[in-house]
Amino acid sequence: MTSAGDLMVIRPKRFELPLWAVLLGLVLRWSGRVVWWCLRHPVATGSALLALWLYVEFGWSGLVVPLVLGSAASAVWRWRDESSWWTWLAGPLLGSVRRVFVYRRVWREAMTLCRLADTYDHRPVLPQLLRVRSDQALDVLTVRMVRGQAPEQFQAVSANLAYAFGRRHVRVYSERPGDPPTRTGRAAWLLRLVDRVRYRDRPTLVYLAVVRTDALRTMVPPFPVPVVPDFTALPLARREDLRTWSLHLLATHVLVGGATRSGKGSVLWSLVRVLGGGIASGLVRLWVIDPKGGMEFALGRPMFARFACKSFEAMADLLDEAVTVLRERQTRLAGTVRVHTPTEADPLVVVVVDEMAALTAYLQDVELRKRIASSLGLLLSQGAGVGVLVVAALQDPRKDVLPFRDLFPTRIALGLTEASQVDMVLGDGARNRGALADQMPRWAKGVGYVILDGTPDPMRVRFSYVSDDDIRAMARQYPAPVDAADILAQVGRETATEPARPPLPRTPSGPLLPESLRNLLDRDTGGEGR
Known about the structure:
This protein has about 525 residues and is α/β, with parallel strands linked by helices. Helices cover about 40% and strands about 15% of the residues.
């Protein structure tokens, strides 16, 4: 028998590597990392090898002369085409520098304190910063999320991320911001294949747009007035990335929500301005309702085919006539087309209402309020396809103030007073995705949030400022023509004297539509004649 004291613990023999094997393993490990880095960064690797070869062959002059020539070529490139210069040279270069010296330096701390880091197998797991691309105003960070994360987690802490990187605003996008460029020329097919890979759907990635320079602090001048407005892309505002935001007005209704003195007039007058060419040619008819007695729209009276500003009875008549136009077009166009094509003889009718709540909630005459609500409901539910559109602005977006706000497909949120109002205007979850319209600073008149086409992600924009002098000039240059072939007999006008209007030009050239709009309508009708 063996006692407990006689038991011996047998341990395995310790295996020790020789020093040369340890050193060889370290060399192979770091060599593999260097090779992998060179493969992932071919431009930087090629530039370093080229610089080394020039120095070996020509000395310091081999480095200085190409640097001077490259700087001169870069200056000329920027002078001739700054947009492409930022896209292909300055943007990637600045993004690479900022990725190393700005974001990677604080990445672990920012992800941990913003509650975006996690633990797996007793090890910390962080979202991976893949790429940084810069332009004049933004840094767009491409981030690979931790397995199990969703873009909503980044959107919920967008404000925390902004201050973690030392900035005021960060936008979070679940898809790559921006649309693929339009390719033309002989190599267009090859470039389109490249864009198909670059802009493919990648659910594991999230994009952080860090606003480095707030381009919206400066006032946006009025945009040029096109001779023929493109109803699929009306330029109204400047985006954070210095590009132009355009409104798709065809077959939609627009709701503008904002508190007092938040800049709703900038949105409405910017729209009126870019429609000026169509107003003067007869392609567009503006029917304007100004319940504030004409304080907002009276300056532009010559541009409006219909104008009601004092009598609520006249406002109700205007909406009833818009419904009459709707019914007539439905009868005439049914079975022919699905989307109305504006022409001089059959123009686009845009009903502009400055303060919608004055017609739907604050009007004391119950019967008249019901009549107005009935007309508005018909216009919003059936008018888009026949070219009778509604553009409305209001201060209070609550359901009891505007019961049919869900019938507006396009919505714009300016400065609001409560956080809950943001979702009322832009839709549920818009504030969590970064639309902080309730936190607008005092200077942000005309600054608001819009929803980008095809994505649920909000974009911050600033609408152009149209001064009183600009409005008077517009009214003189783009008056609305009136003749016997108008849409309806204009009855119930409130002004005693009507402004002088030139006769409506009649040309046999057909619809005054841009090529892009005609192609869009041709696709809707299957290529058949309209």
